Amino acid sequence: MVPAEECHSLHSLRQHVSRDLPLRVSVSSTSVQAKSVVYNCTVSSASKITWIVSYRYSEFLAFRVKLEDLWTCHDSNCSGSCQALRDIVAAYFPKKWPLLFSNQVVVAARKRKLELVLTHLLRSVLLPGSAMACLHARQNLPINVFGFLRVKSDVDRRSALQICVDNYQIAVKKENRHAVTQRSDSKTVGCMICLCDVDLEHGHQQCDNSLVVLPCDHVFHRWCIFQRLMFTIHCPVCRMHVSPYAVTNYCHPTRNSEQWWLSDFGDTQLQPKRC
């Protein structure tokens, strides 16, 4: 049973603890270099790896400008929520205060706001929702957010649902069962997204794309379904929930809204086990 939806204002999101994110970031400390404040961000992944990235305010500002101009679309008929994402980032982003690098109150406020910006961007790219429904944002935003935070491993770049599906494959193999192969003598089935064959024995080797079976037993190319799971929580064939823990949430900045599904995975749901 899916719990009732929740609505978060910008203010309430500041208090929200994102235990469901496989990547977490905190602006843990600051230092002063060449009369500029450097913000040190601690990033931790579900694979228990932690590292630090450091940027000046000007570098955060340049990152925001690229996000607004290049990595989100400006189409009035955007299929996602690019304008809402820009509005949220603009609402959180700290204003520039010249010559106040030594003011601890200003620095502390900036730390808090920059952490909110980074956390919301991770929420937008790692949880299935409206931000990634836009093809332009899906192709540009995650790779640049991960690059800014120096997330090097593809394992750590997976979304919450992608991790959950990968963990389900481990559970299926451990139980030594495959519902699709038990039902059919054929060695291939059709991926219902790209409509190409899925080789049940060897995956799709020509494009280095292995098969993935969902809990409902429908089979897809891994790349195909992983793209889909960036903005939906359902199997595209039967509409069954990929994860039973999904909760629909909305954020309403000004006239626009951003929607995503906060799934309270927690640490245990992001470990190698059946979801």
Automatic annotation (TrEMBL):
Asked if the record carries the keyword Zinc, the reply is yes
Keyword field: Metal-binding, Zinc, Zinc-finger
Q: Which Gene3D superfamilies match?
A: Phox-like domain, Zinc/RING finger domain, C3HC4 (zinc finger)
In the record, what lineage is assigned to the organism producing the protein?
Answer: Eukaryota, Sar, Stramenopiles, Oomycota, Peronosporomycetes
- Protein name per UniProt: RING-type domain-containing protein
Please list the GO terms describing molecular function.
zinc ion binding
Zinc-finger among keywords: yes
State the organism named in the record.
Phytophthora oleae
Q: Which domain of life is it from?
A: Eukaryota
Q: Where is the RING-type domain?
A: 191-239
Q: Which InterPro entries is this protein grouped with?
A: PX_dom_sf (IPR036871), Znf_RING (IPR001841), Znf_RING/FYVE/PHD (IPR013083)
